[in-house]
Amino acid sequence: MNTFDWLKRAEEAQPGSGTTTELLEERVIDALRTVFDPEIPVNIYDLGLVYGLDVDEAEGRVGIRMTLTAPGCPVAQTFPATVEDAVFSVSGVNDVHVELVWDPPWSRDQMSDAARLQLGML
């Protein structure tokens, strides 16, 4: 990102511009992309494990509905805390709630093109 792009984003993030929530959501997504599935070498966002993302800019609250690749995944008990920690690291986030859901079950169809390309499926 060049200096002009950085300045433009900083101006857009000024209160009252209407884009601060989008920028916080982008930063949260960036944080989610740092968390990798323990069995598949792809981040959880591009893998399609995040089913819902609710960002409240004013309160700094983030709600995440997500799943795992399989209900019997050995990290099912600890992985939500890993995701929470990654999102808590985002500036402006004060509260994170991760809800682990199993319906609908995850399938390869939920992966992004980037994930498919990374796994040699394109």
TrEMBL record:
Signal sequence segment: none
A Pfam family per the record: FeS_assembly_P
Gene3D superfamilies registered for this protein in UniProt: Fe-S cluster assembly (FSCA) (3.30.300.130)
Domain MIP18 family-like: 25-99
Source organism superkingdom: Bacteria
PANTHER family the record matches: FE-S PROTEIN MATURATION AUXILIARY FACTOR YITW
Family matches, as NCBIfam families: SUF_assoc (TIGR02945)
Official protein name in the record: MIP18 family protein YitW
Organism: Paraburkholderia ribeironis
Gene: yitW
